[in-house]
Amino acid sequence: MSTVSMTVNGKVVASVVEDRTLLVDFIREHLRLTGTHVGCDTSQCGACVVHVNGKAMKSCTMLAAAADGADVTTIEGVANGDLHPMQKAFNDNHGLQCGFCTPGMIMSGIDMVNRYKAEGKTLDEAAIRAELEGNICRCTGYHNIVKSIQQAAGEM
Amino acid sequence: MSEGIGAPVKRKEDKRFLTGSGRYTDDIQMENQAYAAFVRSPHAHAMVKGIDKSAAEAMPGVLAVLDGKQLTGDGIGNIICGWAITSKDGSPMNMGAWSALATDKTRYVGDAVVAVIAETKAQAREAAEAVVVDYDELPVAATIGAAVAGDAPQIHDNAPGNVIYDWEIGEKDPTDAALAGAAHVTEMDLTNNRLSPNAMEPRAAITKYDAAEDHYTLYTTSQNPHVARLVLSAFYQVAPEHKLRVIAPDVGGGFGSKIYIYPEEIVCLWAAMKTKRSIKWTADRTEAFLTDAHGRDHVTNAKMGFDADGNIVGFKVSTKANFGAYMSLFSSAVPTYLYATLLSGTYNIPNIYCEVLALYTNTVPIDAYRGAGRPEASYLVERMMETAARELGRDPADLRRQNFVREFPHQTPVIMNYDSGDFEGNLNQAMEAADWNGFDARKAESAARGKLRGIGMACYIEACGIAPSAAVGSLGAGVGLWESAEVRVNPVGSIEILTGSHSHGQGHETTFAQVVADRFGVPLDSIQIVHGDTDKVQFGMGTYGSRSGPVGMSAIAKALDKVEIKVKKIGAHLLEEPEENIVIEDGQVKATGTNKALGWHEIGLAAYTAHNLPADMEPGLKEGAFYDPLNFTFPMGCFICEVEIDPDTGKTEILKFVASDDFGVIINPMIVEGQVHGGIAQGVGQALLEEVVYNEDGQQLSASYMDYTMPRADDVPNYDVLHHNTKCTTNPLGIKGCGEAGAIGSPPAVINAITNAIGNNDLSMPATPSKVWALIHSARMAAE
Amino acid sequence: MQSTTYHKASSAADAAAKLAGAEDGTLLAGGQTLIPTMKQRLAAPTDLVDISGIEEMRTIDARPPTVTIGAAVTHAEVAASAEIRAVCPSICDLASHIGDPAVRHRGTIGGSVANNDPAADYPAAMLALNATIKTNKREIAADEFFQGMFTTALDEGEIITSISFDVPEKGAYAKFPNPASRYAMCGVFVAQGGGGVRVAVTGAGDDGVYRNADMETALASNFSADALDGVTVSADGMLSDLHGDAAYRANLVKVMAKRAVAAAG
Predict the structure, then answer these.
(1) Would the pTM of this model clear 0.90, i.e. be above it?
(2) Chain C touching partners, 3 or more CB pairs below 8 A
(3) What integer pLDDT is reported at residue B136 of this predicted model?
(4) Does the pLDDT of residue B783 top 90, yes or no?
(5) Which residues 39-68 in chain A show a CB within 8 A of chain B?
(6) Do B769 and C245 count as a contact with CB atoms less than 8 A apart?
């Protein structure tokens, strides 16, 4: 057991957890922030993506202990006000159906827009599709997810 | 009417999903919650000689270690298939016993044997690993071929030769005669590949037992909570129906796989009673591959005969269908009444005969997966048509055109009676959007870059709106397939719709509200859709088979009719105008020809204060309806796919995908297009990427996303989704349904495009790069 | 995953000491392979020694003639390094196609090289670039380091601290990803430098990354894609699985090699 302390969505949290605790379980079970999901066991589906120190990471493939001292943002913490432009874009473009993969899609979407902006690169449709390699959706066929991220990229 | 029928209204339910506030089963924590883990058979076929639970029982946190003998000893019934199919010879189907925990024998890898209940998830899992099961391995039949082989092991004692049924439909002799007299017969052997549904939310259950009330609660990932309650009580005797509440909260996709009641829900309910603890179980993805019902898995021989002019004269089909190790809830209907009844496709075919041999194998049970039978029929018919056109030297569009059904209603030789459609209109629209006529130039451009370009089409038809109860009852269904709705107008005028349909991505909270807003002109925000809870909602049949529009919304429309009548009576009374002059529009109740009007909320208030109602009128404003469809509905369309193949690697890229569909009346085009997108992606997945693969020992080689290829964003194109709608004539709103169409029409369109590109028709799904390369390579070698 | 004890190491020496003190300890870098393996209960180390935060292992030095990359540098950092890109863009391009963006934010070059997954990308680059793998004990040439799938020259408790290689004159990596896992079904790294032409293949061989001598010979005299036309790649020794048989992989080796050579220019 170790005491793990980190900032989650701007709030400092600390909890004594087993060392084997995954970051996603820390977020879901200990903090009861259940917007971050688990859809696979092999780090492919991306339903668990959160931002650790500003970068998208798969919280199912990381120990909570390894995030000790980190600044973590989950889907519950991205909006500054009502909805983040990425969240709004998903609503505008019907970028979600069952909603299960959606938090991971939004966290990956925000991350890719931020990176492309920082590097001065254009996030076109092909780039979005390539960047979504680590996020699987079974409902939308991706068409409207791509549209959503394109819209948000213009608004962020 | 900006929020009514036909408006692309943004979804009301989105905000909770976008902000992480959705409430899926695994998000729920109960007081006093313990966890279940299952010990599963590592063997595809084995006798269970003994179970040593002692080590597990001694482990920390372990509350109970439960086995199949205890389960059956407590009177828990076997899992059943709810649709009786009769064989050619009149004999009933051979349903083998399926206990939620195996008692004497396991029949597939993943078959549950023991359930461990412990304080934590980790303790349950670790104790499950400590359970020692003594197996005596048996020979395995993992494929259709192995199940019918002379030396095949007997999987269920009451199914000789592993045959569940040997069924037929249509007229054999006339079909044989038509083929014998045909000027040309196209014959193909086709396989429809086995798929895993893969809703992104894994299945989960949380159960609670209240000893004082002898009452059970089940939160579960279900598409049909009432059906779950009925089956759990009536057949599995887990709890009396009035003492069991089933809640399907937010559900992360279903695609058929969450229709069925699985062993885990049964065991968790029973274990809650035994341990007096709430029990939670959540599948991981590997468990999902090992236990969620798979789909498809047909092997078929088909012969289609044409006269000298190219008219189809007969179609004869012989299919072997894999059922897996047990008969799942609706499994028997899938390769029969959901498959063979669609073999007429969009064509006039005077003679059809189909026989289906249903077989057990030592694999996961197979049941309905998005499309369920209809993708198998569509793939068969549309590959046959394409192949016939090539063999006859005919343009594939023209051959289809010539054989289209053009007059409605149209009775096919295989039960279905098509009510409406303009098949050629959709074909023309799709060909224009795909620039079919410009293909040759594009092919030449690809060839100049060393690439192979191909184009293919499929004109699918399917049967939705499942289903007229008396009709399906006569065909063996154990349930009626109507739907229910209740409309509650509150005293303040806000409206709650209680529906037996269940939304797990379809957007019912928006579209169902649109139907109400359209009728009364009230704001969408004043309408709430309630679903998924057997304590709140009257009995309903749930969501599958693209039925929520044509059946679920029809029930709402019917209930709205009743509300409308009462509102008009109240309005006439209060406005002192004749009832026939009362209209409801823009959220007001008005008397035509006057400027008298009441606000919608005033009617609600009047109904509930009951101070001034017409004589003999009951207070309140709440009406319910059960809608039983008159007929199936028949969505149809034309899909065109254009591909480019890298001959060096065999990799297929989809350059263009056009879908032109006839869905009847569309409530929300944005949501309907989303359904088509998702369906096409699953169909493209079947055609190019996905396949559950077993080795001969019955081990699944593709039981994770490392080996089961899920379509990703860069595997699929943007889709051009068009409509050419004709109103359904058999339900009040004119809706045909849209949920499965994409998955039904796309596989043959993709494969027809690839075979067109590579000039080789001997291609099976999934058309993986290695498979396509092998065909190209062998042709090159033969040419050298 | 089974119980384990987590340790954060502050230096390579600290990591070595912590590892030595553990009953059955394992190094944890980005964990993008190790954590899933532990979740599947295919690995159950008693102790995890986290080396991802060791500053001395997080540096990049790309001043020619040698590029040195700290073992704890992530794939995303290599992909985005302007410094490396200026002298050896091929390795940046390779890194930008490992896993997915989230995996690249966490996975490290040291972890990838130490694991020597037969379908990983970096081993092909290391071998083709004739890299030197530096550990807390010694320096190991890539040719000696990779010893068959999941097998390396690393001793018990030995920790990779950095990798280095001389800037090649030309180099490129071409990969055909497994449709499901997106690991390399075949990846070929071709490099031309002071030591001649080296061609390394990952994903295809049944015993991990290897060099193709026939291709190296053909390219040594004529560094062009056409030079590989006459080279035959045998299906013997190729992996065969549900995604493609040995003959298909043999084909991919040649196709990807030609594409890499063409890309290298």
Answers:
(1) yes
(2) A, B
(3) 98
(4) no
(5) 39-42, 44-45, 47
(6) no
Domain stops at, among A74, A93, A112: A74
Pairing of strands B636-646, B215-220: unpaired
Cross-chain Cβ contact B774/C243 below 8 Å: no
> Above 90 in pLDDT, residue C109?
yes
The pair of structure tokens assigned to B20 is: 């992480």
Instruction: Say if C179 is an interface residue toward chain B (CB within 8 Å).
Output: yes
Domain ranges for chain C, please list them. Answer: 5-50, 57-166, 170-264
Q: How many interchain CB pairs under 8 A, B with C?
A: 47
B304 within a domain of the structure (yes/no): no
**Residues composing chain B:** 784
Is the domain of B682 the same as that of B750?
Answer: yes
| Domain limits for position B419 | 368-466+632-783
Question: pLDDT tens, C66-98?
Answer: 999 999 999 999 999 999 999 999 999 999 999
**What is the rounded average pLDDT for all residues in chain B?**
97
In sequence order, what are the residues at sequence separation of 6 or more whose Cβ sits closer than 8 angstroms to the Cβ of residue C52?
A66, C28, C29, C30, C31, C72, C106, C108
Per-residue pLDDT reduced to its tens digit, B215-242: 999 999 999 999 999 999 999 999 999 9
B182: tokens are 């045909």
B648/C251 Cβ within 8 A: yes
User: How far is B22 from chain A, CA to nearest CA, in Å?
Assistant: 7
| DSSP per-residue string spanning B171-214 | -HHHHHHHHHT-SEEEEEEEEE--B----SSPPEEEEEEETTTT
HEC sequence for B581-631: HEEEECCEEEECCCCCEEEHHHHHHHHHHCCCCCCCCCCCCEEEEEECCCC
Distance in angstroms (rounded) separating the CA atoms of residues C122 and B569: 78
The one-letter amino acid code at B472 reads V
- The residue whose two tokens read 């990471």 is A57
Q: Which domain holds residue A47?
A: 2-74
Inspect the interface and report whether the beta carbons of C101 and A65 lie closer than 8 Å: no
DSSP B342: G
- Separation in Å, CA A101 to CA A126, A135, B509, C39: 20, 8, 19, 21
Q: Please tell me the predicted confidence (pLDDT) of residue B557.
A: 97
Query: What CATH class is the domain C170-264?
Result: alpha beta
Task: Say how far apart CA B462 and CA C110 lie, in whole Å.
Answer: 54
Q: Does position B1 have pLDDT exceeding 70, yes or no? A: no
Contact A33 B29 (CB under 8 A): no
C180/B768 CB distance under 8 A: no
Residue B216 CA to residue B235 CA, distance in Å, equals 16
pLDDT in tens, B312-345: 999 999 999 999 999 999 999 999 999 999 999 9
Chain B touched by C252 (CB under 8 Å): yes
Number of compact structural domains in chain B: 3
- Kindly state the average pLDDT of the residues B182-194: 98
Spatial neighbors of B514 by CB under 8 A, at least 6 apart, are B3, B4, B5, B7, B9, B524, B667, B668
* ipTM of the predicted assembly exceeds 0.90: yes
- Which residues of chain B make contact with A97, given a CB cutoff of 8 A? 253, 505-507, 674, 678
The H or E element containing residue C254 is helix C246-264
Question: Roughly how many angstroms between the first and final C-alpha of chain B, as a whole number?
Answer: 67
With CA atoms as reference, the chain C residue closest to A131 would be C101
Residue B12 to residues B154, B458, B500, Cα–Cα distance (Å): 53, 35, 19
Q: Is B729 exposed, middle or buried (0-12, 13-18, 19+ CB in 10 A)?
A: middle
Q: Are residues A91 and A66 in the same domain?
A: no
- Of all residues in chain C, the one with the smallest CA distance to A40 is C36
Give dist(CA B357, CA B334) in Å, integer.
12
Are residues C18 and C4 in contact, defined by beta-carbon separation less than 8 angstroms?
A: no
Q: Count of A–C CB contacts within 8 Å? A: 84
User: Do B706 and A42 touch, CB atoms closer than 8 A?
Assistant: yes
